[in-house]
Amino acid sequence: MSSHSALERTINKVLSQKETELISQIDSAYQESLRNLEASRSKLDAEHAKIIESAKKQAENLKRQIVGSSRLSARNKELLMIETDVNEAFERAKSWLASSSKDESYRSLLARLIEEGIPSVSSDEVIVECNKNDAEQVKKIVADLSKKNPKLKFKISDQPINAIGGIRVKSADETMSFDNTLDSRIERLKPLIRKNIARMLRGED
Asked: Would you say the C-alpha torsion 59, 60, 61, 64 has a positive or negative sign?
């Protein structure tokens, strides 16, 4: 009986030791699992933070793109509106000039346009072109200018030009020319008019 009790104690002792070792191993594994879980959680938190930050940056970039695109679209519409209004205004001005009576003030304008054009072609022999309605007045103006400056030689072209008024001047060899028609002067004014209208729309002085 004593022998049996001794064996039982020995078995219980071994089992107790194994149980302690097993519990220790389980506890160790559990603690390792907790550490791994915490490390994983930190990494996940860091990744989550990166994803959130990246999403914010993408959203901000998209917002800037949308705002920029909207501003560009609005700017293009504004420019198109300005261009349309300017063209319509100039077409009305051309129609008015074409239908208006050619009085003495217009004759003075023609004379000034011719005098402006002569230096531009750098020649003492010039060809003057005009529309058929202005031909008679241009002939008189040229005759007066010839008397004032005998060194200048004028020729009035037989071919009328398609213009609402004004003149074109060419050198005798036709290598140089200067367009001083009302049409071209109106076209040269367009950029300035556009600029002024755009400034007015923006409330600039």
From this structure: positive
